Each structure stands twice: as structure tokens, then as C-alpha cells.
Amino acid sequence: FNSSILLFFDKILKGEISSAFGLVRPPGHHSNRYKCAGFCIFNNIAIAAEYLFREKNVKKVAIFDWDCHHGNGTQDIFYDGSENGQLLFFSSHQDGRTIYPGTGFTNEIGSGKGEGHIINFPMAPSSGDDIIQLLYKEIAIPITNEFKPEFILISSGFDTHHTDRLTRMGWTIQ
């Protein structure tokens, strides 16, 4: 885990900066509550969200996860909600029937306090920029605006690029 992210949060909450960009690799989105998975040891994005809830009294956080692979660990951690705040999780990824980890379907919506706060966008292989832009413009951004998070965290994978030789998405650098 990279503690510079926590420093960013502190500076934002004090009004010293309005936003921050931290490059933390890997995002850890395959690690769940009980185990490491998919080359991920710590779920950095989940740690960051819980830090905001527990230590900074933030009430609402949204996480956008875009990657060829579903953010199954992050989904697992927040599937039943957080005891400390409200979390909205979006994962846009290649259809789980065609790639690891085989999860991230539209019927996986959360339960208990998390019900309706898990939103998956499984996409067919070779889906391009037009699909992802439409999903975020027409669905993710309006839902996020209605949710009114105090922080938006991004778990960004790089394997959605059309030149990636191991996966099959069609995104460009747009």
C-alpha cells in the first residue's frame, strides 16, 4: 500500500488541493477479505476507501474500476456494504464468461447495505471506446451524480488497450 494516497486525502480534506492523482500499482482489485489473488496482495483501493470512512469520517465514496478483468476482490469486500459509510462500486470489464476471474455479471448487485451499490458492466471482447464512453456517460456518471460521493477513487487497469496481447478489449488512448 502506498501511504502517499493518505496524504492526498488529508490535503484534499483540509482544502489545500482540490484533487490528486496517485499512481499505485497494482490497484489490488483481485484481493478480497481473505486472500491474495490475480497478482494482487493488498486491495489498495478498498484500503483507501475504508481509511476515508474510518479515519476521516467521509460518508460516501464511489469507486470506478476499469480493467479487462472484473474487480472481484473489491466487489467481494463491499458486496454487503461497509459498516463505516456508503460505497458505490462500478466495474467495467470484459465479460467474465471469456476471461479471469469469471465474475462481474449484471445480476451481482450487492446485498444488505450494499444492495444496489454494485454495478457491473461486462463487455463483449473487442468492445471499443464507443461502448465504454456510452456506459459511463449514460449510466455511471448520472448514477454517481445522484449518489453524491465525497470522493471518487479510480482503480485503473491498463490491459483494455487494443494493443494488449493477453486480453481482447478494443480501447484506445482517447
Task: Give the arrangement of secondary structure elements.
Blueprint (H helix, E strand, L loop, with lengths): L3 H10 L30 H13 L3 E7 L5 H7 L7 E9 L23 E6 L5 H19 L3 E6 L18
Parallel strand pairs: 1-2, 1-4, 2-3
Describe the fold and architecture.
The structure is a single chain. The chain has 174 residues and is of the alpha/beta class. Helix content is 28%, strand content 16%. The chain starts with a helix and ends in an 18-residue tail after the last strand. Helix 3 (72-78) links the parallel strand 1 and strand 2 (86-94). It is built from four helices and four strands; from the N terminus they run H-H-E-H-E-E-H-E. One of its GO terms (biological process) is epigenetic regulation of gene expression. Residues 6-173 form the Histone deacetylase domain.
The strand order across the widest sheet is 3-2-1-4
Assigned CATH architecture: 3-Layer(aba) Sandwich
Mean pLDDT over the residues: 90
Order of helices and strands: HHEHEEHE
What's the CATH first level?
Answer: Alpha Beta
Q: Give the overall shape, derived from the CA principal axes.
A: globular
Low-confidence stretches: none
